[in-house]
Amino acid sequence: MRHERQNPNSRNFGLRSRDISKAGLNALKEDIKSFSSISTMHGRWNRFCSWLKTEHQIKDMRDITHEHLQEYSSHLSERCNQQNLSASTAQNYMSAVNRVMEIARGDRTVHVAPVAEGNLPKRSGIAKTNKSVSHDVHAKSQSALTPRTAALLELQRELGLRFEESAKLNAQKALHEALQHGYINIKDGTKGGRLRTVPVQNDAQFKALRLATTFQNGRSMIAPGQSYKQFKQDAYNELKSLDITFHAERHHYAQTRYQTLSNIACPAASGIKHGFEHYRYIANTLKISLKEAKDLDHHARMQVSQELGHGRIDVTNSYLG
């Protein structure tokens, strides 16, 4: 027998618990009969709750907005790109959050379509559209952002850094490394603390580093008086009104590096289908054999994967197509 809700305007929409996780469980029990389905979806909801408390300190479902779900979807997308999460699992996580919020609220106002709106990869993991930021969109965004956030965007675009890596970069040290060795070491803010090197070979990269040094605060780019979490939240809030995401700048880096390494546009940029069709396109364009084309593609993808901090060639599918 199902229990009647308390006042729907009260904490957690009156779902008989002050705990956001348990309130979600009660919502599922209102709408789903299968115990196993409830258990599975509640586990997925719990992951969202943990992320929500960590990133936004939210403990009441009434405070969850559409923007929070979009940011969570970006978080899941990043995990997919790192090969820490499959596309199907990420979509299931997002669908569970959507379902709980729909039951709790009684409407679909706070809802994000996993692929169409949340930009989660389709189950193949191969990018079907070009997610890279064009020069015009990037330039327009730069002029609309605060100078410090704009400098971060340049680091992500020109060096392929994740947001956390760019925020925690010691730009002065990195510039010195680039001038001395032609590459920089990336460790702070990386996944698992894994050190990697990123080549610095063109004027745009040096310009991005020099610009970053003017905003350096101590050993990082984090604004004075702010924690990393506060700084991240402010930066993400700046981008909400713009047609751009931080991660899309990594797509630009990946695609640009692929073309530099192979002298050919990647599938996402060229519109040529991933696999045999693109190998044939490489072979015909560069006047080489099909085997040489496949080897060239493999080498470029492996190098891009290493520079992005993944180390697995299959992860490049979501960036390059």
TrEMBL record:
<keyword id="KW-0238">DNA-binding</keyword>
<comment type="similarity">
    <text>Belongs to the 'phage' integrase family.</text>
</comment>
<dbReference type="InterPro" id="IPR050090">
    <property type="entry name" value="Tyrosine_recombinase_XerCD"/>
</dbReference>
<dbReference type="InterPro" id="IPR011010">
    <property type="entry name" value="DNA_brk_join_enz"/>
</dbReference>
<feature type="domain" description="Core-binding (CB)">
    <location>
        <begin position="26"/>
        <end position="105"/>
    </location>
</feature>
<dbReference type="InterPro" id="IPR010998">
    <property type="entry name" value="Integrase_recombinase_N"/>
</dbReference>
<feature type="region of interest" description="Disordered">
    <location>
        <begin position="121"/>
        <end position="141"/>
    </location>
</feature>
<keyword id="KW-0229">DNA integration</keyword>
<dbReference type="InterPro" id="IPR044068">
    <property type="entry name" value="CB"/>
</dbReference>
<dbReference type="InterPro" id="IPR024456">
    <property type="entry name" value="Integrase_catalytic_putative"/>
</dbReference>
<protein>
    <submittedName>
        <fullName>Integrase domain-containing protein</fullName>
    </submittedName>
</protein>
<dbReference type="InterPro" id="IPR013762">
    <property type="entry name" value="Integrase-like_cat_sf"/>
</dbReference>
<dbReference type="Pfam" id="PF12835">
    <property type="entry name" value="Integrase_1"/>
</dbReference>
<keyword id="KW-0233">DNA recombination</keyword>
